Amino acid sequence: RLAASVAGWTSLPEENNKLHHVLCWWSVLDDVPLEVVRVLVFLVTHFRELGDAFNACDANKDGMLNHKEWVKKLQALNCAAGARLQREHQRDSPGPGSEFAAGPGTSHDQEEVLTAVYRFLDTSNDGDISKKEFEIFNAIWRELSQSMWELKMKLLHTFGSLEQAWATAELHEGEMPYSEFALLAGECQFDGPLKQIF
Predict the structure, then answer these.
(1) Which intervals of the chain are annotated as region Disordered (predicted)?
(2) If DSSP codes are grouped into helix, strand and coil, which group holds residue 83?
(3) Closest by alpha carbon to 180, among 188, 167, 171, 190?
(4) Domain 32-134 has what CATH class?
């Protein structure tokens, strides 16, 4: 009602179930743990659609993900694990006490990360993730995609090309550290979610 009376959205349905189908939900990335963003990026790069990721994890095909299905499938895909992630986290950490904790390096660490993401998705706290709960990933992905596009446009406007922006950065062994990424974003006056994009 507020959207209709204040914002002029006169064509919104009154019934909640109809309203849910009309709206496209987004997410605020500052409220999303970095582990969730990293697992989401992994899923987006390994599956054509996020629904395919859900179906791949749903081993018993009951339309729900239990903790065991989730962890077992993503461990098999090597999600959120390995020395590479640990090196990235340590290299990119802006300093002690930062939000960039040391990355997962063992299968136990991997399971902890996947469990934390599982709990984030299980909004009903019933021990299972429904397809509807899994759709949280879609809202987060929309916001992350939009933020990356906005950063790209600002970099192009400021530097003329992404290659020129890359050339101005001080690289460490051919890679850009977080501190340099933050400087580039500052130069082009990008005020979006840097940690999540990085």
Answers:
(1) 85-108
(2) helix
(3) 171
(4) mainly alpha
> Which one, of 112, 127, 174, 150, lies nearest residue 29 by Cα?
150
The residues, ordered by sequence, that sit 6+ positions from 27 with a Cβ below 8 Å of its Cβ are 136, 139, 140, 142, 143
Task: Count other Cβ atoms within 10 Å, centred on residue 92.
Answer: 20
Domain boundaries, the chain: 32-134, 144-198
Distance of CA 77 to the CA centre of its chain: 18
| Residue 64: strand pairing partners | 130
Q: Which tens digit of pLDDT belongs to each residue from 134-164?
A: 999 998 998 999 999 999 999 999 999 999 9
Q: What is the pLDDT of residues 91-114, one digit of tens each?
A: 555 544 343 333 445 567 888 999
Q: What is the pLDDT of residues 57-88, one digit of tens each?
A: 999 999 999 999 999 999 999 887 544 454 55
Residue 126: is it exposed, middle or buried by C-beta count within 10 angstroms (0-12/13-18/19+)?
Answer: exposed
User: Of all helices (H) and strands (E), which one includes residue 180?
Assistant: helix 178-187
End-to-end CA distance of the chain: 38
CA distances from 20 to 13, 42, 121 (A): 9, 28, 19
Q: Name the E strands within 17-169.
A: 64-66, 128-130
| DSSP-assigned letter for residue 29 | G
Neighbours of 10 (CB within 10 A): 8
The token duo for 41 is 């990026």
